[in-house]
Amino acid sequence: MSKIKILIVEDEVIVALDIKNTVIKLGYTITDTVTNCKDAIESIQANIPDLILMDINLQNSKDGIETVKMILDIKNIPVVYLTAYSDDYTIERAAKTNPVGYIVKPFKRNDIKVTLKLAIIKSKNIVIKNSNNTFTDLGFNYYFDTQNDYLYYGEELIKISQNEAKLLTLLIGARGNLVPTRQIEYEIWTEPVTDTSLRTLVHRLRSKFDHKIIENVHALGFKLILNNNDK
What is the pTM of this model? Predict the structure, then answer.
């Protein structure tokens, strides 16, 4: 099995060297060690890494988060952020780029070891999801496995009932279009039900999400609110 290739983007030379030595001792390969956005872009164009260790605060350069945005336009490469900043604003900015890890400075070498292992596992699972056509990306890091009726938030399995899975499958199949109330009732139940039963089912399914994903079209039915999905 080939070694995982890692790019280090860190503008503090001593810190970068320490990270490099640690990563090599852990059995990974370093594609490059760079200090700024421009060199990071050039490096991935020359030798694409499997993962990037990215410092957020890069002096005399676009910061690490902006650099990652530019990299993701070229290639979807998993990123672990390195930073001395753990404030809410920085974390929220970083979270929008969907990193697979986050290490706060000052850190110990064991922090790198543990974070890299978890990040590599997570990134492999993401690749599997992205390449498996049974997984539907619902947006906001939610995925639904239409083959097994499993709902995920990232790597976390969210328990849903059989009827909740049926409802979600119907909404996904409509690709953002309205699913009439009567169709839902016919597909899920084998006998007539009250409006309360359907409203309760929708409420339970909605409660599994932190974001509004299911929209109620008054007196007509329901539809899925697509987020960067094919319509």
Answer: 0.56
